[in-house]
Amino acid sequence: MRVAMIGTGYVGLVSGACFSEFGHDVVCVDKDAGKIGALRQGRMPIFEPGLDKLVEANSRAGRLRFETDLARPVAEADAVFIAVGTPSRRGDGHADLTYVYQAAKEIADALDGYTVVVTKSTVPVGTGAEVERIIGRRRPEVEFDVASNPEFLREGAAIGDFMRPDRVVVGTDSERARQAMRELYRPLFLIETPVLFTTRNSAELIKYAANAFLATKITFINEVADLCERVAADVHDVARGIGLDGRIGRKFLHPGPGYGGSCFPKDTKALLHTADAAGITMRIVEATVEVNDKRKQRMALRVIAACEGEVRGKTIALLGLAFKPNTDDMRDAPSLDIVPALQQAGATLKAFDPEAMGEARKLMNGLQFCDSAYDAMQDADAVVIVTEWNEFRALDLARMKLLLRRPVVVDLRNVYEPARMLAAGFDYTSIGRPYPWNEAPKG
Questions:
Q1: Domain residue ranges in the chain
Q2: What are phi and psi of 250, to 5 degrees?
Q3: Were both Cys, which of 64, 165, 354, 408 would link to 58 (CB 3.0–4.6 Å)?
């Protein structure tokens, strides 16, 4: 099939590359000429493991192309995907649909013959209906359907998620559109991937409900971690104990400094606005957002407490800045709360992240960016593990002790075992685990 992917951000680029890997003829369109030029030369605008090789292979095979003008790709397409950004709107946090509706207008003007227009962007309930109205008003003579096909891609594992998904969700009442979407996803039918066909409104809500549930699960185990610290329990034992219950499951039960990224913060707030507009109060989601925001703000207090209550005049090394490993995404990362709080408390900060320092430089001032984890630890008074990159999981503890002025480690991702760190002579603080050698960290 012929596919036009409007938008080459995270979702559009990954989806377009993966559809071309399925054997479809894909054109990814973006108005940013610099981005398109870079993609044509094989330079990726984002870091995602394996994406560069996938783009290169399918571009070389002629199945994947990049353009700045959508007119011809849309006119020739069997399916057009809207994969533009839907950032939180300033002031109220609602999803900003400006780019979606603008794309719909431009698609309408270019349609030529029956086409399925698919919203791939994460959008509130009713967006597909509005896209349909926009196209219908501009081109009443054209045959088309509008479907919803939400994405469920995890940054850092997006290609595997697309190629081997838990499920594919398609929202449409049109049998003709269903047939087109079945053909697009035919390779997944062959591996018996569940494909759920729903109404368009249901599909739009599924995405938000899924992300809100996962955000709630993360926030729940973080609150359990706080309780574990007070009662000398181990949150990892508790998480395993409840996660083995098939009704609960093991995933998303790892404690940390709070969730961030491009999806959970934005989508939980958008869901709350959708509920409010419908006259519904979602108290659990409201509490999840509030608790998570406060948690990220409190993480700096843990660092200060580990430094004997004072960081003024001290140097702190931060390992990791991205909201999670295997991505350079800094959106709503916990580090964005930790860094300014420690700076305000008087600390000098050094940092290293394998991929996110380019993005971090745009967002953080007064930070010394280093060439390696060990470079960041040189002459620091404490080291804080903010993001659990694999290269931080087997650091040379003896070398760390030599580099640090004081052997203080604040592990916000529970990468290391407390007993091992104690035996190695470190003053070690982590999340939700008993501290037999000192008091549980406050905050």
A1: 2-198, 235-429
A2: -85, -25
A3: 64
Q: Are 373 and 391 in contact (CB under 8 A)?
A: yes
User: What residue has token string 């002629």?
Assistant: 62
Is 3.10.20.740 the CATH classification of the domain at 2-198?
Answer: no
pLDDT tens per residue, range 320-361:
999 999 999 999 999 999 999 999 999 999 999 999 999 999
Among 17, 49, 12, 42, smallest CA distance to 155 is for: 49
- Tell me the two tokens of residue 302: 């843990």
pLDDT in tens, 351-409: 999 999 999 999 999 999 999 999 999 999 999 999 999 999 999 999 999 999 999 99
* Residues involved in catalysis: 263
Query: Which residues face 350 on adjacent strands?
Result: 317, 368
Q: Measure the CA–CA gap between 256 and 225, rounded to whole angstroms.
A: 9
d(CA 118, CA 16): 13
Q: How is residue 269 written in tokens?
A: 């707030």
Q: What is the pLDDT of residues 5-32, one digit of tens each?
A: 999 999 999 999 999 999 999 999 999 9
- pLDDT tens-digit series, residues 185-232: 999 988 899 999 999 999 999 999 999 999 999 999 999 999 999 999
pTM value is 0.91
* Residue 188 main-chain phi, psi, to 5 deg: -80, -30
Task: For the domain made up of 235-429, give the CATH fold.
Answer: Rossmann fold (3.40.50)
Q: Are 341 and 295 in contact (CB under 8 A)?
A: no
CB within 8 A of 32, min separation 6: which ones? Answer: 8, 68
C-beta neighbour count of 318 within 10 angstroms: 30
